[in-house]
Design goal:
By secondary structure, the protein is mainly β. It is built from no helices and eleven strands.
Length: 113
């Protein structure tokens, strides 16, 4: 069983950047692909980005953040980072981190005027 904890959410302004962190613990933590999804009120959960477990240079991005976000993983493989630049109002959501079949509780990103 893997436990995942997300952090880094908060109130952000349009056009700014933020970095979310996902820390995994447990026996197999760091072995699998880690992915970020997000869910805004009234919308379905949406894929944001993913980074493989062994080949950490292999990444994938959802269309909504492609070209303005970067996902990475530290050397232990147990911490993943998601940086999103040029934030838009549509980026406001609860961001969830997942590895294998486990999910964190999410971290909320809200927009500020």
């Amino acid at each position: 069983q893997v436990q995942l904890v997300e952090s880094g959410g908060g109130s952000v302004q349009a056009g700014s950047s933020l970095t979310l962190t996902c820390t995994a613990s447990g026996w197999t933590a760091g072995s699998y692909t880690m992915a970020w999804y997000r869910q805004a009120p009234g919308k379905e959960r949406e894929f944001v980005a993913a980074v493989q477990g062994r080949r950490r240079n292999v990444t994938e991005y959802g269309d909504s953040v492609k070209g303005r976000s970067t996902i990475s993983r530290d050397n232990t493989g147990k911490t993943a980072y998601l940086q999103i630049n040029s934030l838009k109002a549509d980026d406001a959501a609860i961001y969830y981190c997942g590895e294998n079949t486990c999910w964190g509780q999410g971290t909320q990103v809200t927009g500020s005027s």
